[in-house]
Write a structure and sequence with these properties.
Order of helices and strands: EHEEHHHHEHEEEEHEEEH
Largest sheet: 6 strands, parallel
Number of helices: 8
Bound molecules: adenosine-5-diphosphoribose
Structural class: alpha/beta
Radius of gyration: 18 Å
Strand content: 15-25%
Oligomer: single chain
Mean pLDDT: 94
Number of strands: 11
């Protein structure tokens, strides 16, 4: 890593949570707990079979409560970078787990929502939710039952905070993509939305977007992210 950078945007995907024990989406042949994500992470699936979609997210939410699941060295290194960085810093994650927050990240955007939040489709209030959700769960605000959904962005829905993300990308001079396959847009296009940035991809293997990046670091995030953060904070 050369040169002095001022403004950093980081994008993370499921790969940064893999060493914490959370399965990635496409590593296991695209199946997640026996489901194809594209088959359950859609508004149509929820309208058709809400209990099946609730069960899919309840199992993943419960997994987060497992004491064996904890932030890893990559999550922790990003907190050191955020805390030690004098310039602008934004962490954009596609992940819906809370491992970045549990490590201490603060300037973070969950562009695909969060497992530990629910939203009411009647009163449109969003709120923290750690337990199972079902069609019989009453909204804590409007008391309606059958109208709660995971506060997750499904395929075909608009990701969160895209304006804020694009503003940060436009202004950054360092863009680091960690542990994402680069197959799902708009996140996969962020590397082309940071015109002034040096771009770095950290992944176990070359991704489909590899040619768009200035630099590639191939290996586990748990090893490579602490090393990169050390370089940046030393510069
Ligand atoms: N270190 C670094 N990279 C890793 C590691 C690791 N230990 N383990 C896996 N990876 C890489 C894989 O090589 C792969 O490129 O992480 C990537 C995970 O890719 P996906 O499973 O496709 O996950 P992601 O890119 O986050 O998916 C994007 O798709 O299903 C939707 O909304 C969901 O946010 C998700 C989006």
């Amino acid at each position: 890593m050369t040169g002095i950078h001022r403004s950093i945007v980081i994008l993370t995907g499921a790969g940064i949570s893999a060493e914490s024990g959370l399965a990635t989406f496409r590593g296991a042949g695209g199946l997640w707990m026996g489901h194809r994500v594209e088959d359950v992470a859609t508004p149509e699936a929820f309208a058709r079979q809400p209990e099946m979609v609730h069960a899919f997210y309840n199992a993943r939410r419960r997994q987060l409560a497992d004491s064996a699941i904890a932030p890893n060295a990559a999550h922790e290194a990003l907190v050191r970078l955020e805390d030690g960085w004098a310039g602008d810093f934004l962490l954009v994650t596609q992940n819906v787990d809370d491992l970045h927050e549990r490590a201490g990240s603060k300037r973070i955007v969950h562009m695909h929502g969060e497992l530990r939040r629910a939203r009411c489709t009647t009163c449109d209030r969003g709120f923290a939710w750690l337990d199972d959700l079902g069609t019989d769960t009453a909204c804590p605000h409007c008391a309606r039952t059958g109208s709660l959904r995971p506060d997750i962005v499904w395929f075909g829905e608009m990701p969160m905070d895209l304006e804020r993300i694009h503003r940060a990308l436009q202004g950054c001079d360092l863009f680091i993509s960690i542990g994402t396959s680069g197959l799902v847009y708009p996140a996969a296009g962020f590397v082309e939305a940071a015109p002034a940035a040096r771009t770095v991809e950290i992944n176990l293997e070359p991704t489909s977007r590899r040619s768009m990046f200035d630099e590639h670091r191939t290996g586990p995030a748990g090893t490579l992210v602490p090393a990169l953060v050390h370089e940046l904070l030393q510069a």
